[in-house]
Amino acid sequence: MVSDTFRGIALWFIVLAALTYGIVNTLSKVADLFA
Amino acid sequence: MLSMLDRERTVAGPGYARWLIPPAALAVHLSIGQVYAFSVFKEPLVEHFGTKLTPISIIFSIAIVMLGLSAAVGGTWVERNGPRKAMFVAGCCWALGFVVSAAGVATDQLWLVYLGYGVIGGIGLGIGYISPVSTLIKWFPDRPGLATGLAIMGFGGGALVAGPLSDALLSTFADNPADAIAPAFLTLAAIYFVMMTLGAFTVRLPADDWKPEGWQPQEKAGQTRGNVTAANAIRTPQFWLLWVVLFCNVTAGIGILEQASPMIQDHFDTVTAAAAAGFVGLLSLCNMAGRITWSSTSDVVGRKPIYMMYLGVGAFLYFLLASSGTASVGWFILLTGLILSFYGGGFATVPAYLKDLFGTLQVGAIHGRLLTAWSAAGIAGPLIVNAIADAETGAGKSGADLYTLSLYIMVGVLVVGFVANLLIRPVSDRHMEPSEEGTGRFRREQVPTQQGVTTERS
User: Do B196 and B235 have their domain in common?
Assistant: First the structure.
């Protein structure tokens, strides 16, 4: 059984990675606005 | 197996780290936030079904209406059954919605997409949106704005993740995006089901007598120390004033959000379609950043003052946009970015405002009922901007002139919200739940005053 702590920390990494993916992709589009 | 989802099985033991809870909430909100990126599928769906944009746009509208309805109707169920079961049910509905929609696309049955993404997925949206809110407020009674801001920031961030992800899926499964919709939907169903189930099995409730180590509730202006049930809350003027506040704030923000791309191109001839897409992305970032920044700030400055800023400063910014928005692209972006940050902040701060007014007993259920303001604003905001733009076009106007009247109307809408917020006072004792001992006194907590003297307030 996976411990709550391990699952919680793993989930922090997953959601932060997903958010980073979204923000980096959006910023690349924003660059067009100021090009 | 299913008993693992019961509320009683989710209560955390002593020493449980509360910072393990926000990622569970974020996992759910990042998943359901995909709804704001639904536009990625619009053109492929139009081409696949050989129809116009309006029948496809109805899918999104059904989902948002179902979000409001299911949050309002299911709020009490969520409170009674706890966050784990609610998140799991939300995950099942959200994933099933994609699966049914994929079947609709594969068999060329548009009504199945309405039923799948719109109705079933919409129920997942509503249940998922409210499921972690009251749990976070119970874990972070010292910083409820930060906690709910973190989760609801995820809803804003969900679109940022789903947009490029959906684009990638559509270009991976077929040469023509219209032929890749069904496998893309099935892939998203699998990803979101795993994410939301992980969140469901990570979330935990604090024990009834739990509080952060060393923390004592402090008496603050405007905070209610008792508890009000959802049934009683909707009988108070405070609930309906806050409904008006949320409605006005969302109406104003959604008016810009929905028309962002054509609006900046109509204001400035130099802005290309690609640059306008960047502008939409920037507004999404401002929306997301506003959720965590302003909601956390409300823990320090108070809920009522921060809504004064959202609505009062927001009205002033709208006035500047209407009167001087064409001055330069940078000025236009600055004004709209700030307005969208207030829009996001309004969403994220409202659960903490409800907690201040009605206590934590059924704050999730009350929040669910309040979200009907979102559904109403989702219709009113775009209607105002689109109808006026069409009328102005008919009158021979063009460019920025198409939006001037709408922007001044939004100033008025925000002023109405500002006045409603001004009128909000602490909830009367007669709406509070009586004490369990039946002594006739209200259920209130032992709280120290600012001077540290413990008093029982009733």
Answer: no
